[in-house]
Amino acid sequence: MKKLTIAILLLLFGLILSACGNSNASESMKSANTETEKDTFTYESEIGPVEVPKNPERIVALTNGPNVLALDGKIVGIDEWTNANPLFTDKLKEVEIVSEVNLEKIIELEPDLIIAGSHMQNLDKLGDIAPTVVYTWGKLDYLTQQIEIGKLLNKEKEATEWVDDFKERTATAGEKIRAKIGEDATVSVIESGGKEMYVFGNNYARGTEILYQAMGLKMPDIVKEKALESGVYTISLELIPDFAGDYVILSKNPDVDNSFLETDSWKNIPAVKNDHVFEINTKASTYSDPITLEYLLEIFEKSFLQ
């Protein structure tokens, strides 16, 4: 009987230990799950919900890199075009250049978030590497796009505050500029392309969003007809005078032939004669993120008002 009693007690003790172990394991799993929930959230992307880290530490930005940089996002991989932009040189030191076709290189970077364009290849494979959020270029206006990046990076407040402040400052600048040049004065944004030129509508970077949307400046009727809907319109060198407004923002590409600037056709344009041509660097003007917009806003205010 004594041996039986001891055996029963040992069995009960074992069951109690087992129950405690299961309970502790359950609590540990629950705690781990809770911790995971704290570290991630569901971002409603344009192709559906994506579980993303709240504070991403290793972002591969195949698109919208400048928007991420404006919010001090921690980028480890960037597209070649953003990397070539002189405005971002300091911010992209030691950041790898990547593309959606070089999956091995992206894997090596161990990203915890990937941002890609809807037109890109290998979107499914990118999603296997890390949570991947996709954007379609031009689907959102330039300010809403920044707020969306803010939501993605858990920095919506910072993004929204910048947008509100930028709207106020550009509206004020626009009022001052229109008061100086006249409400009916027209502005063209033209870019040098070597053998051909480009004229822009109101949403194709090069400061067009600032000039036409935020400041309310007018574009020539022919620019409105040809470039407003498409965003950009290609013209020959001979047609520059037809598309030049009272003021011309010349997006000058230092890597192409700019000999047109020495031709009589260019020199006889009224805006050129009146010293109403303001140059911007093409390489630093091809995005519509806060860093680029602040850079261009300063140029426009000085050019028009001083």
UniProtKB/TrEMBL annotation:
Membrane topology of this protein: Lipid-anchor
The protein's name in its UniProt record: Iron-hydroxamate ABC transporter substrate-binding protein
Pfam families: Peripla_BP_2
Chain ranges of the Fe/B12 periplasmic-binding domain: 58-306
Assigned keywords, A-Z: Signal, Transport
Location (main, coarse): membrane
Localization per record: Cell membrane
PROSITE patterns per the UniProt record, alphabetical: FE_B12_PBP (PS50983), PROKAR_LIPOPROTEIN (PS51257)
One annotated GO biological process: iron coordination entity transport
Lineage: Bacteria, Bacillati, Bacillota, Bacilli, Bacillales
Family designation: Belongs to the bacterial solute-binding protein 8 family.
One Gene Ontology cellular component: outer membrane-bounded periplasmic space
Signal peptide boundaries: 1-25
Keyword Phosphoprotein: no
Highest taxon listed in the record's lineage: Bacteria
